[in-house]
Amino acid sequence: MTIGVGIIGGGIFAREEHAPAVEASVHLTLKAVYSRSLKSAKTVAPDASNVDFYSDDSGEGKSFEDLLKRDDIGAVIIALPILNQPEYIKASLKAGKHVLSEKPVAENVKDAQELIKWYHANINEDVVHWSVAENFRYLNSFDYAQSEIEKLGKVLGFRLAMYANVLGGKYFDTLWRKKPSHQGGFLLDGGVHFVAGLRLLLGSDSIVRLAAFTNQLREYLPPVDTIDATLKIKSGATGALSVSFGTTMTGSVWTVGCEGGSVSVSGTTVIGMAKGSKVSVSGSTITTTIDGKEEKKSVEDERSGVPPEVRKWGEALTAGKENPRQTPEEALADLEVVEKLLRSGEQNGTPLDCVLQDVAPVYGGKPE
């Protein structure tokens, strides 16, 4: 028997990622969609005859609260503007529904900590689970790269560089992104993804201190669109982070250098180099070069990582347990790094400590 799911939100991600992922899961069945308007709710599952739609303009019996009253819906996926999510998370949990809420866990660390504290104090976690989505934790390319890093010994240094020139597009054109009321603008919304990828590669060698400079290169990307920083990890190694949504530079790369070699993830590309050998992934092909001899191996990401993320969520719910890669504390660790980068930038590069990074280890091997 599958778990009935309601999707809360009628935006692009709910329509293009969450709904197809739920429909593809053997453990989940899409039962309902809620959005502020009936028009936007219907865009999430336009061809589904067995999905009910709820909205603020649908009249009596079709509100968000009415959706939560349904016994055949055991879980909800919440994909709303960042500032709106906490009240829907609380209401859903209080109604006894499992929750998978989109990242970030909250708009800021203080609110996130209060929400997490409320969850642990008021919800029976043996019965109801709150999970937070982060699709980068379900990219096969990052899992492969992390498994290679584990073989290469002590981390000597690392680098995260992600550059884009946001000029428009479907995500930018959503009002809450175009005129953000949340801290950091695109750097919060997108930055938690990039930090999650870096944290996955570093494994248990967590970030402990950082110093950053921030800038707004484009007037239409407030409040800031660029971060350049130095980070220190638990072992004492240091690395660099450079992220910009307003530059004409292009490309993305995550690199971790170890005593035995280095491994890089470049976009959908993974490149790894060890003593006397080189391992690289171009698209979905891994090329291993040893003494000039190449060996190719296929590695593919499953879309954006959302399908396996939702599938693993459904599997965990069916088993009656929490998925360790989806805990609120894991998402809080991502958020803390981004927030500290923003605060350091506001203070002209003042070094700041990261104190929320020691969550239960969840990396290594196949994603749970």
Notes on the protein architecture:
This protein has 368 residues and is α/β, with parallel strands linked by helices. It has 11 helices and 17 strands. It has helices spanning 12-24, 38-44, 64-68, 85-94, 109-122, 140-150, 175-178, 186-189, 191-202, 306-319, 328-346, and strands spanning 3-8, 28-35, 52-55, 75-78, 98-101, 130-132, 155-165, 207-215, 226-233, 238-244, 246-258, 261-266, 269-274, 277-282, 285-290, 293-298, 352-353. It has an 11-stranded mixed beta sheet. A 6-stranded parallel beta sheet has the order 3-2-1-4-5-6, with helices on both faces. A hairpin with a 2-residue loop joins strand 11 (246-258) and strand 12 (261-266). Helix 1 packs across helix 10 (306-319), helix 5 runs antiparallel to helix 11 (328-346) and helix 9 crosses helix 11. It is globular, with a radius of gyration of 21 Å. The chain starts with a strand and ends in a 15-residue tail after the last strand. The model is unreliable at 268-298 (pLDDT under 50).
Q: What is the number of beta strands?
A: 17
Shape designation = globular
Give the H and E element order. Answer: EHEHEHEHEHEHEHHHEEEEEEEEEHHE
Terminal residue distance: 21 Å
Task: Tell me about the largest β-sheet.
Answer: 11 strands, mixed
Number of helices: 11
Unreliable sequence segments:
268-298
Based on secondary structure, the structural category is alpha/beta
Calculate the mean pLDDT score and round it: 87
Fraction of residues in helices? 25-40%
Q: Radius of gyration, rounded?
A: 21 Å
Major beta sheet, strand line-up: 16-15-14-13-12-11-7-10-9-8-17
* Range of strand content: 25-35%
Query: What oligomeric state best describes the polypeptide chains here?
Result: single chain
